[in-house]
Structure formats: C-alpha cells, structure tokens
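agent: user wants the structure for DUF3429 domain-containing protein from Agarivorans albus MKT 106. delegating to structure tool.
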Amino acid sequence: MDSLQRNYKLLGYAGLSVFIALALAVVFGATNIGPSPTQLFLYYSVSILCFLSGSLWAQTVSGNAFGAAQLFISNALTVLGFVCLAINSPTFALAILACAFSYLYYCEWHSANPSRLGKSYQSMRFKLTTVVVLCHLVVLSNQ
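agent: tool returned. relaying tokens verbatim.
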C-alpha cells in the first residue's frame, strides 16, 4: 500500500468514526456535550458534505469531469447543506443529507475518470458512503 492510499484510508475511516460516535450519542441520549447530539451530527454531516462536494469542483478544474454541470452540482450540494442547517426540521434535514451523500457518490463515479485513484479508493468510498447513510438513518429513527 503506497503512502497516498494509506493516508486517504486513514483520513476516510477517521472521519467515519465521528459519524458513528455521534450516531451512538444520539441513540444513547448523550446530553452532556453542549448542543444536542442530533444537532452536532447535522453540523458534522454538512461539513463533510461540503468538503466532499469540493471533489466535484476539483475533478472539473483538473479536466477529469464531464464539464460545467459538476461545478453547479458541487455548489448546489454545498447550498443544500446550508439549507439543512437553516431549516427547523432535523428529520427533514437528515433525510436530505442522506440522499445528498448518495447522490454525491453517484456523481463521483459517473465522472469522465471515476477510477483515477484506483479500485481501492472506489471501494473505500462506497463503504464510507454506505455507513454514513446508515448513520443518518439511525439518527433519523431516533427523532
């Protein structure tokens, strides 16, 4: 395993651990962590969605994407994340975010060069996205 592969796996799974920890905090009703666990989960989810949306922008700028549509998708997902923080319905926001993560994965793997980092990266992203969406469903079911 090369250095890049080791680093993206380390960072990917470290980021996933925060989703899992916050989902567990919601399930077990942790109340001593400042804002509600659900609110923290939403903040983190939007942060990661915006971060990953930047990958669509980077693909377009580097010439590895279909074209300008991905720039608009990247921005739309970021604005959608902001809207999820602004609406007064955690249930609706969680559902939107779960769909947004799924759509982002779909967009990444339907670019002009989806395997630029290899099958290992694609496999990891699929696993991470699956667990992230499941965490959203767990939190959603505890609303």
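agent: one observation worth passing along. The CA atoms of residues 107 and 143 lie 29 Å apart.
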